[in-house]
Amino acid sequence: MDSYSQKALELLSAGKLTQFDEQFKLALKNDADDMLFSLAEELYSLGFLSQAKQIYRQLLTKYPDEDSLRANLAEIAISEDQNDLALNYLSEIKPDSDSYVQSLMIAADLYQTQGLFEVSKQKLLAAQKAAPDEDVITFALAELYFSTREFDRAIPLYLHLIKKGITTLSAVNLVERIGVAYANAGRFGHAIGYLKQIKLIDMTSDVKFETAFTYLQLGEYQKAIEVFEDLRDSDHDYPTLYPYLGEALVKIHKEKDALRVFQEGLGVDEYNESLWTKAGDLALKIGEKEQAEHYYRSGHRIAPDDLTLTLKLSNLLVQEGQFENNVSFLKQYLETHAIDPQLAWNLATSYSEMDNLKLAATNYQTAAKSFGDNPDFLREAALFFRSIGNVSEMLQLLNRYVELEPTDGEMMQILNEYR
After folding, report:
1. Structural contact between residues 37 and 52, judged by C-beta atoms closer than 8 angstroms
2. Contact present, 274 and 242 (Cβ < 8 Å)
3. Can you state the angle between helices 17-30 and 33-46, rounded to 10 degrees?
4. Res 227 pLDDT > 80
5. What are the ranges of the TPR repeats (predicted)?
């Protein structure tokens, strides 16, 4: 004769929820405890937490020493965001209980979801001490170290499991995990030994990136490009790939291809100031100065606080003799930002070329506070102050210059004129 529990499950499977509720109540009153426990396990796995909880509570009343029921109730409480209740159940499970290790694992998971990683770690270490041969605990501890980027601690644990022949646990590929861990720890030679065992088709986007990045660090640029391109084909919106794919292409002297990659990356993530910088630098390298200015300006508009982009655009404008454009650009920038020594130098050069001698002098003096050991600056500034008849300022700069560049006959001759 079928039990009420069996009939309840059949009705649930058929989608007859009202009849299921009636049969469930009969099961609670009439079925044997072992049958009820099996029903609770089945209902929990199906997501019927309220009914499973009723059974576990009923059984705990009859069997107060059965800590496995407390552990199950704690897990349900966590699922229902009743964390304090869960901790109450877990605190009642003592170290001499058969369910103690399970309670530590549940607590560790709870603390991890709350961001209390150190507490979670201590729970797992206690569980490992209580059950040192339990692979699930070793794996959980490795995963925690991995998630907190303590890769050097995670690696030995993954390696321990792999040496036991365990390559997959809880749907996680451990060969993949240890490869990524080695890569993040900067141990690229070890990383690639694991990562290349995984077929590209089986890799997640993150693992493809780590594999390609590892090849790049090892100087295997063509392999890096192949994996980065596969990642781009399978996950075009993965923004991190573009700077590194471009870098790999530059390494094999395919600058124009690299620039197209940077452009493509900016289409995916226009707010990536690093990409604007890389694109501008590369355009400048291949002689496309107008294109370089476009990238620096566009990047600056998107990231106006990025000093690197500001400096690169200002430097380019000065190099190209666009002194008025540089002054106009920096005036706007300096309305909301502090002066940088290089920007002061650029302003000094620009004002000097525009015959605004007063502002040129002011900015040379500002820049001199930081460039007192830079021969190029000292020479330029000294010649400027000589041209406007400021001998004391000139001599101060010139004396320091010839200390650094004693073989510059022209500047030594100028200095001798004033001795």
Report:
1. no
2. no
3. 150
4. yes
5. 273-306
Domain containing 267: what range?
201-296
- Entry field: residues in the chain: 419
Give the CATH number of the domain where residue 234 resides.
Answer: 1.25.40.10
Could you list the beta-strand ranges (E) of 86-181: 168-169, 172-173
If asked whether residues 275 and 194 sit together in one domain, one would say no
What is the residue type of 228?
F
| Six-digit token string for 378 | 């000292």
**What counts of helices (H) and strands (E) characterise the chain?**
25, 2
Q: Output the pTM of the full model.
A: 0.77
> Which helix (H) or strand (E) segment is 39 a member of?
helix 33-46
Number of domains composing the chain: 2
Q: Rounded CA gap, 178 and 393, in Å?
A: 62
313, 293 contact by CB (below 8 A): yes
> Residue 65 region, left (φ>0) first, then alpha (ψ -120 to 50), else beta?
alpha
CA torsion 25→26→28→32, rounded to 10°?
-160
Give me the amino acid identity at 123.
K
Cite the DSSP H helix spans in 286-368. 289-302, 307-319, 323-333, 341-353, 357-368
- Scan for tokens 């603390």, then name that residue: 111
**Spatial distance between the Cα atoms of 399 and 171, rounded to a whole number of angstroms:** 71
